[in-house]
Every structure is written in structure tokens, then in C-alpha cells.
Amino acid sequence: MDLTNTADERTEKFIQRWAISTASERATSQSFIIELCELLEVPRPHATADRDYMFERALKEAHADGQESDRYVDCYKRGHFILEAKKVNIGSHTKSYSKTLIGAHAQAQNYARALPAAEGRPPIIMVVDVGQVIQLFAEFSRTGGNYIPYPDPRSHQIKLQDLRDEKIRQRLRLVWTDPMALDPSRANAKVTREVASVLAAVAKSLEADDHPAHQVGAFLTRCLFSMFAEDVGLLPASEKGEGKSEGKGAFTELLQTHRTHPPTLQRMLQALWADMDRGGFSAALAREVRKFNGKLFKASQSEGYALLLNTSQIDGLLTAAKANWTEVEPAIFGTLLERALDPDERHALGAHFTPRAYVDRLVIPTVIDPLRAEWNDTQAATMVLMGEHEALNAEADRLSDALALKQKAQREANHKVREELKEIDHLRADARAKKREAIQTVQAFHHRLCSVLVLDPACGSGNFLYVTLEHLKRLEGEVLNLLESLDAGQNSLNLEGETVSLQQLQGIELNSRAAALAELVLWIGYLQWQARTVGVGNIAEPVVHDYGNIQNRDAVLAYDSTEPLKDEAGRIVTRWDGKTVKPHPVTGLDVPDESAQVVQMRYINPRKAQWPQVHFIVGNPPFIGASTMRSALGDGYVDALRSSWPEVPESADLVMY
Fold this sequence. Notes:
Number of domains: 4
Strand content: 5-15%
Number of helices: 17
Shape: globular
Number of strands: 21
Distance between the termini: 71 Å
Helix content: 40-55%
Largest sheet: 7 strands, mixed
């Protein structure tokens, strides 16, 4: 094979050619893009009547005063990307460099908003420093949101040398050919559905063996967290060659080793999880394990902590373990897992659930857009301060150079030299003060971000809270990037000190299984993010904390206790359970089964439930119409609710107020 035609050889020539280019933006940007297209083996831009893939795409940008300006997109491909190119002939470590690229990103976002509505907004923005850097930003919902660093703020910047990696070239190739394929929620949703289906089958089998549903749910929850932990590297890698080649770890190895002897596996799982709770040497693995703590692995001596499995059930767990748990989508995983583990909901496993894009549409305008507006103001203020910092330093440099020339040309009086040196020192001090103020401005916003509290008062299995967490962490990544560019020190790398954490996400949920899953979903999502951005080695122990941020209780009604409701004759009052049905003898349609009765309850000392004080409230509350509240919830509950909230009219539905 002729090496000059290999992708690696062509990449090396491309890098060498552009690494030494010093020409201006206008002279080089189009050549750079054309040669990049050739390297990626995608068509180059070309002028057409449709103006769908071209250089210098003309736009009309509207202004607040009603005026319009002519603007030109450096490179545009309809439905794919907007590319804004610069040639920044200053060091990438300088503040002016960051300011230039931040400005280019803002300019590209304005171009996206100025596109004709019929064309839609492209999912990708590229900011290119010709011959140096390609930055990727994505907005996959294409609904008008902000374009955020892709895949995350720590790895959205592709340096010229990074093109040697075929995975990076493939990422860019998809920007040109199929950008929506880069949307992680699409592929992750498929993986998540498959995993939930497998776990549902295992759960059904275990319940058929007379294991109580709550024990099955808790057991499988421990199993799936262990699968996740081994995939991200929080559990030791397998010592077997086969396991290592598959990227699997010690949990899968236990399942494989003891597959044919389930009683041994039961004891080994019990021992492993007890060791994960406290950390240290694990006899089950003959290796050290991290301290996980939290609530998940507590009470290792309780009944049903580790269930006795048969080989078919073990095979089901092995199938689930083969999935790439780093790609499981927490935004939908909780809902699917809740259905998988709940016998009454398992039939709905393949039914509709709230997709990630819908959650984004609520979370982004409610929580993220206001914070991002503050962040934009913070960036602008920081750039002004850094501009003043650079201007003061430049003036100090000018005076210093002038003084040096004077001293050479003539012997000045010492006191005059001292005065001019003092002026230079003052300028330097003022410059340092401006830089400190700029850093403090960004740090103040970071503190604000780490102090924001968000509540979902009907959080279910936590999907709205997880999506909020992810967006907060993405925004934090941008803040830390700017701090790093300002030379703000090691703390800006988020390896220690203040950071966005799960404590900021508060939830209330009546269903105990869903509340437990909400905690699990948040921890999986948080640890996924940490592993991807700061590395597993920087995740502190204990890995999991019991923050108590998900409360298992009623969100609208508090009470001291309940007792059976009795009629005037002292008989216990019952009602239809609200869910059991039977076929109508004539129509065949499902109708309430009157034999399925539950005891009505009386609520002692009912009162309004209190919510924690937070900055934002998100969620998708349940809906029960006013006319069906009594049949669904019982007279005792509705009477207690109405008496506790007298200001709410009787005609109001149970949804939100």
C-alpha cells in the first residue's frame, strides 16, 4: 500500500502544512476548510441556487431598534452547521485569545438566530482558529437554545494535533454528514431501553420464585449500580484476560466465576456489597475496593440483601452487564427502571415516556437560561476588566521602554527616575488589581452556580432533576475553562473545593421505589459526568453520600398519622383500589372491579406540607381531575387535603397551584 495515500499520512501532511501558516484569516480560512473537507473525505462547499452549502452565506441580522445589517457566515451547511473562522495570531494562553473565540461563538449564535425560519437552526456551531483549533458547540433540540460545548466543556476544543486520532476525525466527519448522530441521547436511549427490558425479565423471574417485589427491586438496584461502577472504573478491572478485553470488571467476573454455583454467588455478592459500603480489602474480590457508602449497600445482614439466583437469572444479569453503562441515559433510565421493577407498571415498559428533549424544553428556560444570562453578563464584565488589565500593562511597558531609552541617552536625576519607576509600579499594581477583580467576578458567579437550589416536588425517578444537574455541570465547565484561561490557579480545575453537587437538587416523591431510584439516577449521572470530565482517579471517597436531598413523602399534605375511617355504625369504610379492572359482561370493556377494595384512611392533624426554600422549581406533576379525586384518593385524603388548603377552590384539579 502506498503510505502517501493512507489517512494517517494525509493527516500528518495537513497538520504540518497548517501548523506553520501565519497568513490572515481572509487569506487562509477557505483554503483551510477546503483541505479539511478533503482530509475528512466530505464534499467541499459549493455555491448553489439554494445557498445550502457555501462560503460567505449572506444574512440579514435584525437589531433591537428595528434596523437590519448585512452579515456573512464564513461557511454554512443547512441543517448541519455554522462555521465562524478566525486567524488569531496571538498565543492561545493569552486573554485576548479567549476573548476573540468567545466573541466568535456569540457571533455564530447570532447568525443561527438570523437564519430564515424555513431553514431551521443547525445543530452544530464550529469556531475555528485557522490552523490551530476547532471548537464544537451543539444545540440538538434546534429549538432556539444556547449552543453549548460539545461533547463537554473539557473536550470541545480540538487542537490541530488531535486530528491524528481517527475518532476525532470521525466526529468532525459526522458534523458534515449526519450531525444529529452525535446527539448522545439518541444512541443512549436505545442502550437504556435494552437494559431496562433485560432487568424487567430478571425481576419478573425472581418474583415468580416468590421473592417479594421490594427485595427484588433493591437487589437489582445494587446489581445495576455495580455494573455501572465497573464500567466507569470505580470497581477494579477483571483479572481474567477475557474480562479485560471486554472492558468489564470485578462484578461481571463474580457472575461468570460462580454462574454454576448460585449459593456461592449469593454469599459473594453479599460480601462484595458490604465491602463496597465500608471500603478497603474485599475478600470476595481479593482486592481493595473504594468506599462507596451512601444508602445503597447498607444493612448487608438484612433478609433479601443478596438473592439466591438460578443460572437463567444470572445469565440475564450477565446480558445486562454487557451493555456499556457509561452510555446509559439517566434522563430516561429512572422511568424505565421504575417500570421494570414495579409489577404493576411492567406492562408499560414499552409505552411512551417523557423524552429527553421535552425535559430540556422545561428545564432550560426555567433554570438554565436565567443563569446563562447572568453568565453572559459575567463574561462581558470579565472581558472589560481584562481589557483594562492589558491596557494598563501596555502603558507600563511603554513607559518602561521610554525610561530605558532616557537612561541610555542622558543621565537623569535619580529622583526623577524613581518617580517614573513608581508610576510604572502603580500601573502594574492597577493591572494586577484588574485581573484579580476579573477572576473574582468569575469566581463569584461560580459560587452563585454552586449555591443554586432546584426543587422537583413530584420528582418521580428523578429525570427532571438529572437533566438540570447535567446542564448546571455543563455551565460550570464553561466557568472553569474561563478561570483556567485567566490563570486562576489549581482550584479552577474543579479538583477540589466548591463545585456543583447533588445537594443542590431537591426532590419530593410519594412512591418509595421511585424516590430510591431518583437518588440512584442522580448519582449515576453525576459520576458519569465526573468520570468523563475530571477522571475516575479524581473522584473522592466516599464515592456516594446520603445527602437526604430526595424526600419520600407527600408534597402537598402533612399529617401525624392515619387510622382506618369508620362510618356512623363503627364499620371500617373501604373503596375501590383505583386500578383493578375487569371486563364488562356486555361490552367487554374494562370497568372497575368492585371486589378490589382498600381501607379508607382518616388523617390525624392534617396540614400543608412544607417545601424546602429553593431558587427554581421544575417538574411534571401528576394530574387527577377534581371530579375523580375522591375515587382515586379516597374521601379521607381529599377531606384532609381540602381542610388544609381552604384557599384552593373545590373545583381545582390536583396538579399544581
